[in-house]
# Entry
Amino acid sequence: MFDGPPPDTVPAPPPPARRGRTLRAAAELIAAGLLPEAARAEAEAVAARYAVAVTPAVRRLMDPADPADPIARQYLPDAAELRTAPGETADPTADAPFTPVKGVVHRYPDRALLKPLLACPVYCRFCFRREAVGPDGGVLSEAELDAALDWFERTPSVREAILTGGDPLMLSPRRLARIVERLSAVPHIEIVRLHSRVPVADPGRVTPALVRALESDRAVFLCVHANHAREFSPEALEALARLRRGGAASLLGQSVLLRGVNDSADALEALFRAMLAARVKPYYLHQLDRAPGTARFEVPIAEGRALLRELRGRVSGLAWPTYVLDSPDGGGKAPLGPDFARFEGGEWRVDAPLRRAAAADAPGPG
Ligand code: SF4
# Structure
């Protein structure tokens, strides 16, 4: 007779030791061989303005011999960040006008963001909240958190609470559990969603206690942010497996379309396939939000649509996120296509992906 727990609930092994420490200063990045000495002054100037952090796990993913390394590009400071391009703004998704109480953003009637802290495991050079996030933490005080949770309790139209930041998995398991518990006790909250870079950027943080903190009788979704297939390292896969085995949260994937990181059909295909292999469903592919100093990452929308069009038929619908732009006026996420149907000659015509591929393969005249 089998008298142990079913295989999927076997207690997870302890996470791997978190080797090394997070690099935050230009001097540390130079000493680690990630930046040349010649970049010191510029890197110091960038780090004085925007937070920098490279965790040991992310450091191990970088290839210092590759000047175009897609992992390094996401995290290492660059002098271009000090130049603000036309159209870039400090609050490109207009959070501030939709903030009823500190730490809450209420844009859509049925859902709202809760930002319990503004610290992250790493600081992405393209971050849309780069003017706000940093290691100082921006942690809501007990009174502020209480007021924010009160707001959720008093707002019955809100069915989905979305924990973001910063990164909510940077909270202590105890504090995170308290927040999840309190939200789960609100009768009108049906879904608790969390957005995090921790499983790929600092997987050792995904401890059994952190996994338990996500337990709820509500539907819990953890949206894992990753932009390149290599971010699904063996350590990250172990962290995701611990989350899965814990069973508290369903896993979704979110990415940003980034020049030099994932701006080809091959890179996107590899990314979405890596997500699915890790049992993470690709959910959103974001057009870059125009935060200050991020222009070097921007891929024009027409190019993004063409990339996704190329992918259609190459990957299954499971590997197909919705390509969206967060409206800069705070109006919410708009799907950007591409479209495969058009009304022509009084009827709907579709560009069936396989038919297009066959046409492309067919020999031309002559
Ligand atoms: S983890 Fe998210 S919030 Fe934090 S720096 Fe990166 S993009 Fe910004």
Observations:
- Residues 120, 123-124, 127, 129, 133, 165-167, 197, 225 surround iron/sulfur cluster (CB under 6 Å).
